[in-house]
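Dear support,

I submitted the protein below through the web form. The confirmation email said the job was done, but the results page showed an empty box. After a refresh the structure appeared. I'm attaching both so you can tell me whether what I see now is the final result or a partial one.
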Amino acid sequence: MRNFLYCLIFPHPSNNHRAHVLHPKSIILVIGLLIFSSLFFSSNLNPLGTRIKAAADVSIQELLLFTNQKRTENNLSILTFNDQLATAAENKAADMFEKNYWAHNAPDGITPWTFIKDAGYNYVFAGENLARGFKNSDDIVDAWMASPTHRANVLSSKYKEVGFAVKSGTLNGEETILVVQEFGSTSVLSDTTSGSPPAVTAPETSSLGGLNMSGSVQSIPKLSVSSEIIIFLILGFIAIFIIDVFYIKRKKIIRFAGHNVDHILFLGVIIFIIIIFNTGAVL
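What the results page shows now:
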């Protein structure tokens, strides 16, 4: 058994000086297992590398829970879920898919505050966070917390209520999931007769109501379990190829088959592609 495992990974005279896992039959078997695991675990990267699946474990309940956990950790009151803000978030997500954009302001100039007002929410303060391409709720909230402008929204003492939308669809030819987080606060201040516009904040470079709002798109790699398994196996193959390179050079073996360096570079490119297609972003 020990000799079998050794020959499986390391070159040896008994395996014709080439690890068994690098033999064609073994490689075909591993590729088959990778394809099966990708289908079984609903991998973010399609086995054929043609499209991203929109399967995800993102729920509004968890988004609310994790958001309030961050506020509690910072000695802030929790946010109350508001149906009107949730409606605004749902309409904003639908609008982005319909008009094929991902931004706080629509191409036709519609702002986030339009959706909030149309939902019947009379705000004094309002804010918006966006996310796309993530596979679970805690990664989304962590990404918002990692961005200063998004973090400022999550931890703002001005907000008392929040609404979420989680919607899947096709954006710019890619299947993805959009998450919209709308913050708001209403109070007796909304009855004031002052002509000043309400204070609003959003992490986007623009100006509204006399307030400067700054921020930028941040892309954050978030690998699914199946993608992590695939990368782990690919790294294993790279290590075996490297061992093979040193072995044949040390033993001065002449081999008419095998281009290890090319294989290593090719596998490295595959890992890069997997990471790119597993990248979420916040705005």
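Response: this is the final, complete result; the empty box was a page-load delay. The mean pLDDT is 74.
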